[in-house]
Write a structure and sequence with these properties.
homotetramer, 345 residues, alpha/beta, Rossmann fold, Dihydrodipicolinate Reductase, domain 2, 2 domains, 7-stranded parallel β-sheet, 7-stranded mixed β-sheet, 14 strands, 32% helix
C-alpha cells in the first residue's frame, strides 16, 4: 500500500500499525516537503523498524506488482480534494487499487452540506465525488464493496458509535454531544493554542455549535436527529471522550428501561470486534494505543447519557482506516489491529 | 480567624490566601491527625511564610480577643455536620464569631434532599440547621447578614454562575450540564483512581446523573429547572470547566437573540467583581490561581451553550469562602482576592 | 508461560506483550489478592483480548504439557525471594521450566551487597541463590544457557547500556549518574507522593546516593568504577532518561576523540537489535511503548556525557524479560518485541 | 516603572507580580508587535486587573513624574543589546531611571566570553557595557548601588544558589550540573519541540555541554571551578530543578562532614529571605508560583550532591528582577514578593 501525505500524525500511526500488519507491504510513502528524507527522521519511533524514504510521488509502478493495493490519503483538508479528484480518475486505469481518504472533504454525502462545511470545494469548483462513509461498524457491507472510502472524523466516529444503537431503535427530543479531545487531534503543526506551556493544564471549548463533525454525526445516525455538538480540548495528548446527553420524549421515557437499552446496544454490536460495552464509564487510558471504542449507557427518567472513549489517532483515524482496508480486502477486519492499549501512559 | 480541619487542599488554599489578606490574622489551625506539627510540614508552600502549628482544638480564647472572628470548617463530608452542630450551639455564647462551612452537608435547604444526598444526617439523627447558600454573586444580601454560611460545591458554583442570568430571565426545556474537573477536586487522600500513572493521561465520567451537586445547582437556580449533570475527571490538577447545553422551547428560540442574551449576562453581573464575561470560550489556564470565573454564552436556534471556567480550589472553594467572609465582615468583597492567576502553568 | 504476581504494572506489560508473541501461550496468571477475578478487571486494556482469570497458584500441571515453559515472577521485593527459593527447589523436578525474576532480590551477585541492599534476605535467613543478571546486551551468552535469570532494574539497565561501551574500553575518574523516571516506576499502589495533584507538575530527587540500583550498575560495568547515582521523579508516567556525567583523567582526555568514542559504541552494539545510537539527544517519547533504548554520547575536554532513554516498563522491565526468555528459549531475541513506540503520547 | 518587550512570559510574570506590589505603578508597557492592543489580550489572566494598552515606545514623559523609576527590558536575546545600548546613553539624561535587563546579553562580565556566547555583540560591533550580575543573594551590595543590572538566567541562578555556599568555603575536583526545566523556559513562541503532543510526556537533553548558562554559573561562583552543565526539558510547564554532582578531592572528603556542610549553607543564607534550606529533596511543586528557591545538600564520601528548585519564571526571572528593583530602590527586598506558591498545581 502507499500513503499520500506521509508526515502527519495520522500517517505516522498508519505506518506504525502497518509495520505490524501481517498482510501488508509499505510500498511508497509520499511527501512533498520531506521527499528524499528517511521516514524515521519524521517518525523517530520507526527508527530501526521501517527503513524507507519519502518520495515526491507515489510509485504506481511498484503498486502494480500486487494483486490488490491501497492508497491512503492523509493530506490535510483543503489540499486533499484537489489532489484526490484527479487521482480517482487515474484509478480507472488501475483497477486493483482502492483509495481510503483520511481527510474530511469527502465525508458529507449531501452536496450542499459538503460545500458549506468544506468551502474549498465550492471555491475551486471541484466535482462532487461519492465516497462511502467509513464507519466500519455501521456501513460494513458498503465498505466491503467500495473502492473509495472517506474515513470518519475522530469526534464523529466516537459520537456515532455511542449513539447508533439508540438512534436505530428510537428517537430523541434532542441530543447534546459534548466532545473532549486530546491535543494530537489538531495535528503536527505547532501553534500557540497547542504550545505546551499554554496547553499543558488547560481546557477550553472551541467552534461551539459550528464544528464540521456535527453534520457528519447527523448523517451517520440516519434519522437526522435534533443534535448539537460542542468540542473541547483537554490537556491529554491522545484520546477522545464523548458524552452524549440525550433528552427523551415523555412517552419514550415511560416505556424505556435500562435493560432494554442495554439489549439494544448488545445486539447492535454483537459482531463488532472493536466495540466494548462496559458496565461503568469508559476511560481514555483503557483504549489509548488500541483500536477499541469503549461505551457505557445510563438512563434516568427523561435523560439518557451515552459515554464513549477511543484513541483519536487509532480508532478515530489510522486504525479505522486499516479496519476498512481489511474489509475492502476481504480479510478478517481485525487483522493487524488486535494489540492492546498501553493502559499506563 | 480559625480553621477546623486544616490539612486538606481547601484548607491549604484558605491559608495561602489568608496570609495575603490585609485584615485577617490566622489565629488557630485545627487538625486531629496533625496536632502539634508545623502547618508548613503539611502545606510546604507556606514554609517561611506561615509559622504556626496545628492544634487539637480551636482556641476560642484567642478568638475572643478580636471584635469579629470567623471559623472556617474544612472538614470532610460525614464528619462535618457531626462536629458543626454542637459548635453552632456553642456559638450562641460567642456572638462575635461567624461560621463558614466548606463541606456539602449544609448546602441543601430542603430537608428531604439533604438527607437523601448526605445520608449520615439521617443515620445519625442530626438536627436540620439552616445555613445560607454561599453563592456570593446570587445571595449577596443574605450572606452579608448571615452568621452561618454553607460554601457552595465547586461544580455547583461554576454551573450556577454560567446559568443564573439565563434562568433568572427565562426557562429551558432541559439543561444538560457537562462538568470537567481536575483531580484536586477529589482531595488529598490518595486512591487508585488518582494515582498519577492512572490519572495522568486519562479522562472518565463518574457518578453519571447521580452527583450531589445536581440538586444544589437546581436549588440555586430557583425555578427548579429540568436539569441533569454529568461530572468528569480530566488530566489537569486544578480547574473546572462547565459546558451547559440548554434546550430552548420553540417559542423562546424564535424570540431570543444573542444580543438580548448578552445583555442579560452583562446586567446580571454588573456588580460582580469576580465574574468576567468573555467573547470566546473561557480557558482554565486563564483563571487558575485566581478567584475569577470566566463565562461565555452562544446561541444557535433552539440550543444555547453556556461555558464557564474557574479554579476549583479558589473560586470553587477557598476564594469564595473568603469572599463570603468579606461580605459577612462588611468589608469590600474583593479584599485579599485580587491577585491574577498564573496563566502559564 | 506463567506469571507469579500478575496484578502489578510489570505483569500488565508482560501480559500485553505476550498476547502479541507468536510462540507463547499464557497458561497461568497467579495472584493471591485477585484469585478468581478476570485478568481484564485489573488490566482493562486486555478486555476483549485476553480471556483469563487469576489463579491462587500457578498450575504446573498445565505447564507440563509444553516442551519448554517459563515462569515470570513479578512479585514485589521482599515477597519475591521468600517465594522463589522454594520454587527453585521445586524446579529441580520440572527440568523444562525456566525462571525469570523481575524483582531486585537476586540481581546482586555479591552476598554482602545483596544482604545490605535487600535486608529481608538476612533477616529471614534466606539462602543465597545465583541468578544470571539479565542485561540482554551484556550477558547474552550466560542468559542463553541460564535457567534462573534476575531481570535488571529499570534505572540500572538504562544506565548500564549508556556506559558499558565506554567502561569496556576505558576508565573514568568518576561517573555521576543522574536518573529521571516517570511515576509508573513506583508501581501500582497509590501513595501521597504519586497522588496526581501532587505529582502532576512536580519533580524531586529521592534516595540521593542511596538507591539500590547504584551497586547493580557498578556490578554490571565490571571494573567497579567510582560511580554515584541520584534518581529523580519527573511528571511523566512512563519513561526513563539517564544522564551520565563522566569525568575523564587528564591523560585519557588528551587521547580520546569523539570519533573513537562513537566507534566504541557502534562496535559494542553492532549486534544489539534494541539499542539505537542517535546523533542527538534521545527523547523519552521516541521509545515509549517499545523495547528500544536510544543512546547518544558527547565529549568535551575532560567531560563525557552519555544520555539514554527507555520505556521503564518495557525495555526496563517486561520487554527485557521477554527478550531474555527468547534468548533462553533459543529463538530470535526480537520475537514479539519489534513493535514501534507510540511517539505521540 | 515601564517594560520594554511586554508580550513574553517573563513580562507577563513581571506584570502579574507588579500589580501586587504596594509601591509600584505600571506606567508603560511597550511592544512593537502589539502596540495599541490591550495588555490583557496577550496576558488574559490580567483581564479585570490591569487595564492598560501596549505602547510603541516607553513614555519617558510619564516616568519623569516619579522620583524614582525602573525600566525592565524583557526583550529577546539578540534584540536586547541593540536596543539597550542607545537607551543606556539616553539614561544619562534621566538620572532617576534605573534599568534591569532580563535578557542574557549583559550577564557575562568577560568581553571574550560575552562575544563567544552572544555572538550578535561581535557581529554588530556593539560596545561592551558593564551591568551588575543580578544574583540578589550574592551581589546584594553591588545591586543596591547599581543603575544597570543584568538579571541572571534561570538555570544559572538556581545552580548558583545551590553551589555558592560550598564554593565560597572550598573547592571541588569537578562539578557536573544537571538541569531540568519545564517548557515555559523556552518562551512564548510555538515550535515543534514544544508542541503539546510532542512535549507532553517527553524528556530530552539539549545543548549538551554548550549552554550559555555554564559560563554564567562559573563566573558567579568566583573561583572559576571545573564545571560542566547539561540542560534538559521535562514535561512540566514551570519549574527548574538542579542537581549538582560535586566530586571532592580526597583530602577534603576526609575532613568534611554533613554537619559542617549544613553550617556553611545556613550561615551563607542567614539573611536571604527567599532561600529555604530543606531537610529533604526540594520539590518543584513547593516553589511554583513563588519567589523561593529550596535547597538541600547531601554528602557521601567524595561525592556531594546539592539539589535546588525554583520557579523559572519567578525566582528564575521576574521575581528576582523585582527583588533587585527593591534592592536598588532601597526598600525591603521582599516587598510584593512574599506570596506563597500554589503547591497543588
Amino acid at each position: 500500500m502507499a500513503i499520500l501525505g506521509g508526515t502527519g500524525y495520522g500517517a505516522g500511526e498508519l505506518l506504525r500499525l502497518l509495520t505490524q500488519h501481517p498482510d501488508v507491504d509499505i510500498v511508497s510513502v509520499q511527501s512533498s516537503s520531506q521527499s528524499g528524507n528517511s521516514v524515521s527522521s519524521v517518525h523517530p519511533n520507526l527508527h530501526g523498524i521501517l527503513d524507507a524514504r519519502f518520495e515526491a510521488e507515489i510509485s504506481f509502478e511498484k503498486l502494480r506488482s500486487y494483486d490488490q493495493a491501497f492508497v491512503f490519503s492523509a493530506l490535510p483538508h483543503g489540499v486533499s480534494a484537489e489532489t484526490l479528484i484527479p487521482l480517482v480518475e487515474k484509478l480507472e486505469t488501475e483497477p486493483h487499487i482502492k483509495l481510503i481518504d483520511l481527510s474530511g472533504e469527502f465525508r458529507l454525502q449531501d452536496e450542499n452540506l459538503r460545500t458549506e462545511f468544506y468551502p474549498t470545494f465550492k471555491e475551486k469548483g471541484l466535482s462532487f465525488l461519492k465516497f462511502v462513509h467509513g464507519v466500519s461498524e455501521l456501513f460494513t457491507g458498503e465498505i466491503r464493496s467500495a473502492r473509495l472510502v472517506a474515513n470518519p472524523g475522530c469526534f464523529a466516529l466516537t459520537s456515532i458509535l455511542a449513539l447508533a444503537p439508540f438512534c436505530k431503535n428510537s428517537n430523541a427530543e434532542h441530543i447534546a454531544v459534548d466532545g473532549k479531545s486530546g491535543t494530537s487531534g489538531a495535528g503536527r503543526a505547532p501553534n500557540s493554542f497547542f504550545h505546551h506551556p499554554e496547553a499543558h493544564a488547560n481546557t477550553r471549548a472551541y467552534k461551539i455549535l459550528e464544528h464540521r463533525h456535527e453534520p457528519e454525526i447527523r448523517q451517520a445516525l440516519g434519522s437526522a436527529p435534533s443534535l448539537s455538538f460542542v468540542p473541547h480540548v483537554i490537556p491529554a495528548s491522545r484520546g477522545i471522550f464523548i458524552t452524549a446527553h440525550v433528552l427523551l420524549g415523555e412517552e419514550l421515557a415511560k416505556n424505556l428501561d435500562q435493560q432494554t437499552l442495554d439489549a439494544w446496544y448488545r445486539n447492535f454490536y454483537a459482531d463488532a470486534p472493536f466495540v466494548r460495552l462496559r458496565e461503568e464509564s469508559p476511560q481514555i487510558a483503557n483504549v489509548i494505543g488500541s483500536n477499541f471504542c469503549d461505551i457505557h449507557v445510563v438512563l434516568r427518567g427523561r435523560v439518557l447519557v451515552a459515554v464513549s472513549a477511543s484513541d483519536n489517532l487509532i480508532k478515530g483515524m489510522a486504525g479505522t482506516a486499516i479496519q476498512n482496508m481489511n474489509l475492502m480486502a476481504g480479510i478478517d477486519q481485525t487483522t493487524g489491529l488486535l494489540s492492546p492499549g498501553l493502559r499506563v501512559i
